[in-house]
Structure formats: structure tokens, C-alpha cells
Design brief:
With 200 residues, this protein is α/β, with parallel strands linked by helices. It has a single domain, classed as Rossmann fold, CATH 3.40.50.300. Helix content is 35%, strand content 21%. The protein contains five helices and seven strands; from the N terminus they run ββαββαβαβαβα. It has a seven-stranded mixed beta sheet, sandwiched between helices. α3 links the parallel β5 and β6. The longest helix has 18 residues. Bound molecules: guanosine-5'-triphosphate and magnesium ion.
Length: 200
């Protein structure tokens, strides 16, 4: 699969703003600053589509991006686990993520991003356990692979697989800066889309 066109559709601040679309959606989940927005820009070949920042807490709304004239949507969610926002804001983002996952009418798959250099956080573990429990397909992406050597990348993938209780082959190491892992991700997304179309 390739993404030849991608465009911003809308932002939602709460349940009332979320799309009830017929278009299948892929949701980006993960800790603040793990690289969700940069990953969307890499997949869509558009460095300016989703706003990114070196500081955590950049994405504060749910942002929908339509790909290939409505073939599917990429949904950029706020990150969790950012220590420096208020308790109220944390709770609000948590509810936003939860509401999205529970109520999206056409979720094809969840893409969970983890920083390849770090062990999963307790919030990551909650997400993974949730994903294991739901019947939804999901992809596990280890981001920022360009920061490690090949040997270190392999070692960290093994460690993540153990912690997350999945096979190593289920984790894709990606560098959004260098495009590493991109085609593998797109191919997996294509399979998920085909599966989704067969089940609706
Ligand atoms: N070296 C490297 N840096 C990356 C990569 N992906 C993202 N980054 C950097 O990580 C920082 C955070 O990226 P974002 O895409 O804004 O992260 P996010 O997960 O959307 O963050 P929130 O919106 O706060 O949840 C930015 O400085 C990016 O340039 C990568 O593959 N390699
Ligand atoms: Mg973001």
C-alpha cells in the first residue's frame, strides 16, 4: 500500500466532535513525545501534516486525517503519561482516548507506539492489556530506532516483546526520520484494512 494523498479533516475535543464515519480508522496511541504525529507525517510523506514538537504534550485534540481520498483515516490522539500537565488535563486526555476507543464506529486497528529505548510504562501496559482483550487488530511500533545501533535495536525489540507478552515479529522498529520500517507498516495496515472490510 502507498499513501498518495492525505489531508486534515477535523479536530475533536470530546465525544461530541468525534466522527461517525463510514471510513475505516487507524488510531495512533502512545506516550506523549513517543512520535505519533511524526509517524503520521512519515507514512503520508508530508512533514507538515500533523503538528509535532520536541516538547511532550503537543497534540491536545483528536485529529483526523483522510488518506487516499477517503480510503481510510489516520487518527492522531493526544499522548498519555505527560507528567507536566495538570491532573485535570491528564484526566481529560485519558477520557478523550478512552471515549475514542470505546465509541469510534469504524475503528479498523490501533497503532500503539513505544520508544524503542525505554521499557513500557504502566500506562503502556494498560493499553496493551486493553488491546489484548478487545478483538481489534493492533500494531506495535518501536519508534526512534535511528537512535540505536542495529544490535541495540534487536536487543530492545526482544525486551519489549517480553514485557508486552508478544512475539518479537509483532513489533516493528521504525525511524520516522529515516523512513525505516515504513513499508512494513503500510503492508500490515493493508492486511488489517482487508480484514476489516471482510468483517463489516
Ligand atoms: N530521532 C528520532 N526522533 C523522532 C522520531 N519520531 C519522532 N521524533 C521526535 O520526537 C519528538 C516528539 O515527536 P511527536 O511526533 O511530536 O510526538 P507525539 O507522540 O505526537 O507527542 P504528543 O503529541 O505530545 O503526544 C519530536 O522532536 C520528533 O522530531 C524518530 O523516529 N527518530
Ligand atoms: Mg502528537
Amino acid at each position: 500500500m502507498i499513501i498518495r494523498k492525505a489531508e486534515f479533516v477535523k479536530s475533536a475535543a470530546d465525544k461530541s466532535g468525534m466522527l461517525e464515519s463510514k471510513i475505516p480508522e487507524f488510531a495512533m496511541c502512545g506516550r506523549s513525545n513517543v512520535g505519533k504525529s511524526t509517524f503520521i507525517n512519515m507514512l503520508t510523506n508530508n512533514g507538515k501534516l500533523a503538528k509535532t514538537s520536541k516538547d511532550p504534550g503537543r497534540t491536545r485534540l483528536i485529529n483526523y486525517f483522510s488518506c487516499n481520498d477517503g480510503e481510510f483515516m489516520l487518527v492522531d490522539l493526544p499522548g498519555y503519561g505527560y507528567a507536566r500537565v495538570s491532573k485535570e488535563e491528564k484526566a481529560k486526555w485519558g477520557i478523550m482516548i478512552e471515549d475514542y476507543l470505546n465509541s469510534s464506529t469504524n475503528l479498523a486497528g490501533v497503532i500503539l507506539l513505544l520508544d524503542i529505548r525505554h521499557s513500557p510504562s504502566s500506562d503502556d501496559m494498560i493499553m496493551v492489556n486493553y488491546l489484548h482483550q478487545t478483538a481489534k487488530p493492533f500494531l506495535l511500533i518501536a519508534t526512534k530506532a535511528d537512535k540505536l545501533s542495529r544490535a541495540q535495536t534487536a536487543k530492545q525489540k526482544r525486551m519489549l516483546a517480553q514485557d508486552l507478552k508478544v512475539g518479537e515479529a509483532n513489533i516493528i522498529a521504525v525511524s520516522s526520520l529515516k523512513g525505516e520500517g515504513k513499508q512494513q507498516v503500510l503492508d500490515k495496515m493493508e492486511s488489517i484494512l482487508n480484514f476489516h472490510q471482510d468483517t463489516v
